[in-house]
Amino acid sequence: MVLVTGAAGQIAYSRLYSNGNGQDQPIILGFGITPIMGVLMELQDCALPLLKDVITTDKEETAFKDLDVAILVGFMPRRDGMEWKDLLKANMKIFKCQGAALDKYAKKSVKAMVVGNPANTNCLTTSKLAPSIPKENFSCLTLLDHNPAEAQTALKLGVTSGDVKNVIIWGYHSSTKYPDVNHARVKLQGKEVGHDAAVIKAQKLSSATSAAKAICDHGDTSGLEPQRESLCPWALSLMATPMKVVEGLPINDFSREKMDLTAKEPAEEKETAFEFLASA
């Protein structure tokens, strides 16, 4: 059973087709909260090979019951004139409820992915409210920043994204995030190279990509951001089963400065968010 919240929004709409496509595991797709009969009809018309059933509901006990996967796309977007703290407070209410619902109704093996920004803080909140579910089962959408960093590195070097690996994003979805290519490996003319001057030139990267594509990639890697009471991404080895944090990664002075800077913002956000939770 797969739950998608905020399924009437553009991100979820772009993602839903991939949920029902493939050749292996039939799924039952549940839509939480929003009325989306048009989307439901379109999914049925697609004759997706894996899609066994679609359930639409605004009841938590139905939406979250016996879940295998929860894709939490629904969140409060920032509106004109809205203060940052007001946005954070609104999202704390949403993800507090969703975390509690996961804890009460979902399987204890459920894998939950938080998409709505601030994704790191929302993910930590969700996991806090679901103490019976292992922390490593919660992740958030850091690939929304990682994919464009990888793509821009490839663009600078005239290769495809598939030829680039080991790009790291430190921080989270904000202006202070740091795309680190110091450990990147790139295949040039059939040969893999690293620490090339051309790679280092790609440090200044833009941030624009499809959130739906990032969600698909995130699912393929089974979640990229384990919660360790931290709001910043970890450098992970995806070749390990289960995934593990990369230990002993050499960090130069420039990178350390950028990492320290980007760590301050989510730490402050976490403190404010938990104040809202305590008073709710």
TrEMBL record:
Keywords of this entry: NAD, Oxidoreductase
Alphabetized Gene3D superfamilies for the sequence: Lactate dehydrogenase/glycoside hydrolase, family 4, C-terminal, NAD(P)-binding Rossmann-like Domain
Catalytic activity of the protein: (2R)-2-hydroxy-3-(4-hydroxyphenyl)propanoate + NAD(+) = 3-(4-hydroxyphenyl)pyruvate + NADH + H(+); (S)-malate + NAD(+) = oxaloacetate + NADH + H(+); (S)-2-hydroxyglutarate + NAD(+) = 2-oxoglutarate + NADH + H(+)
Lactate/malate dehydrogenase C-terminal domain residues: 142-192
Gene Ontology molecular function, alphabetical: diiodophenylpyruvate reductase (NAD+) activity; L-malate dehydrogenase (NAD+) activity
EC identifiers of the protein: 1.1.1.37, 1.1.1.96
A Pfam family that the UniProt record links to this protein: Ldh_1_C
Biological-process GO terms, alphabetical: malate metabolic process
InterPro entries, A to Z: Lactate/malate_DH_C (IPR022383), Lactate/malate_DH_N (IPR001236), Lactate_DH/Glyco_Ohase_4_C (IPR015955), Malate_DH_type2 (IPR010945), NAD(P)-bd_dom_sf (IPR036291)
Broad EC category: oxidoreductase
Domain Lactate/malate dehydrogenase N-terminal: 2-138
Role of this protein: Catalyzes the reduction of aromatic alpha-keto acids in the presence of NADH. Plays essential roles in the malate-aspartate shuttle and the tricarboxylic acid cycle, important in mitochondrial NADH supply for oxidative phosphorylation. Catalyzes the reduction of 2-oxoglutarate to 2-hydroxyglutarate, leading to elevated reactive oxygen species (ROS).
Annotated family: Belongs to the LDH/MDH superfamily. MDH type 2 family.
Name of the protein in question: Malate dehydrogenase, cytoplasmic
Organism the protein comes from: Muntiacus muntjak
Lineage, opening ranks: Eukaryota, Metazoa, Chordata, Craniata, Vertebrata
